[in-house]
């Protein structure tokens, strides 16, 4: 049978990658399945642009960053290639390009998802790139490719051996997504690669779908955001925006109203309230804010809520070498995200 790109030029993706029988497919077509992202205005995004505009300028600037996005499928191809078209890339001095711009690859051959490789972008990346990862043996595998944390992706094409199996991946054990709302830390800054954000680690451990609504510097719980969050279909809501509240007074004005907006729409939804991990590093800044969040929790309990939970940020980096958990006294490195994931995961596992 002829390669479809020889019949219909619209299926042809130009590539410098040389692999036998290489053919690209649009990641938005069957059997590929996209998680954690919407499609609008010719690119992927995490929420509708109209909502993002109504919240604040920062959210509008970041809503198309693809943090938390994944594409999943099954194949026995001896290699996986990607060709990504982008209209915005995040380059920062304290953040590896493999995390802010890169995609990474996980495989499941029957023993859970395991990291296999990173589609590493070139340093000069500006409008997209292509990359390939080879396997050491042929086998049918469940594939998960994580999208970049701080970049905009217009299109993604998946390159496989044209003779290989292509099938849909099985559903997550928990398909209804966990929704995480918060700051740059929630968005994934500064993980070395997308799969090392704390939500991705939890997803792999508990086999859960999720949506990442972290917005760097811009998670401030405005009424428009609260109403959007309250209407989302989700299994658990994780509230982690402490860092982006300008001060404890602002947090006090917005934190309880955000909780109440969601509880009013979803009376049985488990809600997890988290205070900033940086309370260990900067107690003078974050101790008062932690008490605001604890007060929301205590108020909810006093009002009869039996499905609200509090995680003290002091527990998130706790343990040996806690001061080695960030790149800049604020944003977690991979150790920091691992510690966060393990603590938050315990709460989520109980609720699931």
Mean pLDDT: 94
Number of strands: 17
Distance separating the two termini: 47 Å
User: Which stretches of 5+ consecutive residues score pLDDT under 50?
Assistant: 7-11
Strand percentage lies at 25-35%
Helix and strand content put the structural class at: alpha+beta
The percent of residues in helical segments reads 25-40%
Q: Report the order of strands and helices.
A: HEEEEHHEEHEEEEEEEHHEHEHEHEH
Shape: globular
The number of helical runs is 10
Q: Over the alpha carbons, how many angstroms does the gyration radius reach?
A: 20 Å
- Main beta-sheet annotation: 6 strands, antiparallel
How does this model look, in words?
It contains ten helices and 17 strands. It has helices spanning 4-7, 49-55, 57-62, 97-100, 184-187, 198-206, 223-230, 248-265, 283-302, 334-351, and strands at residues 22-26, 33-35, 38-40, 43-45, 70-75, 79-88, 103-108, 114-119, 128-134, 141-146, 152-161, 166-167, 174-182, 208-214, 236-240, 271-274, 308-311. 47% of the residues are buried.
Blueprint of the fold:
Elements: H1 4-7, E1 22-26, E2 33-35, E3 38-40, E4 43-45, H2 49-55, H3 57-62, E5 70-75, E6 79-88, H4 97-100, E7 103-108, E8 114-119, E9 128-134, E10 141-146, E11 152-161, E12 166-167, E13 174-182, H5 184-187, H6 198-206, E14 208-214, H7 223-230, E15 236-240, H8 248-265, E16 271-274, H9 283-302, E17 308-311, H10 334-351
Parallel strand pairs: 13-14, 13-15, 15-16, 16-17
Antiparallel strand pairs: 1-11, 2-5, 3-4, 5-10, 5-12, 6-9, 6-11, 7-8, 7-10
């Amino acid at each position: 049978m002829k390669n479809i790109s020889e019949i219909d030029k619209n299926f042809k993706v130009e590539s410098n990658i040389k692999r036998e029988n290489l053919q690209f497919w649009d990641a938005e077509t069957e059997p590929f399945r996209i998680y954690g992202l919407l499609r609008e205005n010719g690119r992927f995004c995490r929420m509708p642009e109209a909502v993002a505009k109504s919240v604040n300028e920062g959210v509008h600037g970041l809503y198309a960053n693809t943090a938390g996005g994944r594409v999943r499928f099954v194949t026995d191809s001896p290699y996986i290639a990607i060709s990504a078209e982008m209209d915005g890339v995040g380059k920062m001095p304290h953040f590896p390009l493999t995390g802010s711009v890169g995609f990474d690859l996980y495989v499941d051959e029957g023993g859970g998802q395991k990291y296999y490789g990173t589609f590493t972008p070139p340093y000069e990346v500006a409008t997209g790139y292509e990359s390939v990862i080879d396997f050491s043996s042929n086998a049918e595998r469940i594939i998960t490719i994580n999208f970049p944390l701080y970049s905009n992706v217009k299109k993604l094409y998946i390159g496989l051996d044209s003779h290989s199996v292509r099938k849909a991946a099985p559903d997550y054990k928990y398909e209804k997504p966990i929704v995480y709302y918060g700051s740059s830390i929630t968005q994934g800054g500064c993980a070395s690669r997308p799969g090392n954000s704390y939500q991705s680690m939890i997803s792999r451990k508990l086999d859960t779908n999720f949506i990442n609504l972290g917005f760097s510097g811009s998670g401030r719980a405005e009424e428009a955001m609260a109403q959007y969050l309250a209407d989302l279909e989700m299994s658990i809501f994780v509230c982690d925006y402490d860092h982006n509240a300008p001060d404890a007074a602002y947090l006090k004005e917005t934190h309880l109203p955000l909780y109440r907006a969601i509880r009013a729409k979803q009376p049985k939804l488990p809600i997890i309230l988290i205070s900033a991990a940086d309370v260990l590093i900067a107690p003078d800044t974050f101790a008062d804010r932690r008490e605001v969040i604890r007060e929301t929790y205590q108020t909810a309990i006093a009002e009869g809520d039996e499905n609200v939970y509090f995680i003290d940020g002091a527990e998130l980096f706790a343990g040996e070498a806690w001061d080695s958990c960030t790149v800049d006294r604020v944003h977690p490195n991979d150790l920091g995200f691992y510690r966060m994931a393990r603590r938050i995961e315990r709460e989520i596992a109980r609720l699931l």
